[in-house]
Fold this protein.
Amino acid sequence: MKHTGLIGIILGFVLTASVCMAAPIKIGAIFSVTGPASFLGEPEKNTVLLLQEQINANGGIHGQPVEVIVYDDESDVNKCVMAAKKLLDQDQVSVVIGPSISGNTLAIARFFSSAKVPLISCAAAEKIVSPVLPWIFNTPQLDRHVVIKILQDAQAKGYSRLAVLTVSDGYGQAGRAVLKERIPADGFVLVADEVYGPKDTDMTAQLTSIKAQNPDAIICWGTNPGPAVVARNRMQLGLTTPLYMSHGVASDKFIELAGEAAEGLVLPAGRLVAVDQVPADHPQKPVLDSYVQGYTGKFNTAISSFGGYAHDAFMLVAEAIRLGNSAQPADIRDNLEKITAFPGTTGVYSYTPDNHNGLDESAFIMVTISQGAWSVTN
């Protein structure tokens, strides 16, 4: 009996040690933690490190700990390329989350296709997943979903003459292409098509040109800080034409940058920006509440939709590993395509071999900025 007891104790130690020594699942991440797009990358980095901590505290995935290797591309495409090559060639990761920026994602996608390692981007350009590339996925709602939602709202309000003002980077070019396609296709007239640079600090000339065309509404497409400049310049010009924003500004940072000029602006956003207004029986509600509680408790700062993109990418990877009981890159890829009705912070995902975004326009709510806060309109 003594020997049996001793053997049991030894086996217990061996089993415990084997769990502790299990090889970690290496997940790479590339975010714009610094540079002009840091408002995207900082919450994304914080989020994946928080999830790594939470999952490992609960025993990892199938007993394997998770090791997240994060690189900052500093919002620079060349540094993003270097980071991608390092993750693939040196770190030997099973999957990569990010980048934060559409242009950076498009620049590195080919490396993942060649290496046969899945990439789950946190950027929204439709070109990332259309046409579908077997190893490339993304988590934000697509540009097309945004445009559809905005035009549905514009139609309901009786607008017919629309102007667009888009940033000249990858995100803006992708959005502009969909706007120019859908505006006439949906029965509207495009009366002005203006562009601004990512580093421009004054859009008065573009707005003055738009004003001369007398549109019913203006659609601004960009990410901070440009759209905040547009909002402030609009106010300075005394322009009262309704102004739509894209989901690229769906965070409290935009309200902070635009100040009183943000009042009354309308945009599609994920439910994360107005989590307190999400019905209790909505499938995303438990995920939203959990993420908000964990993130704000850890970092003592407000959540953003952009951090939510990284949250969803991480949790989709974890789900794919659980489904296939494997962290091999090919198995993760195959099992991502099998995920159906999976609630995230951004929407409810259903990936398929023909759909590597997994969302539609129902992932959006229309919100307006009222008294410095988000208010759901529909």
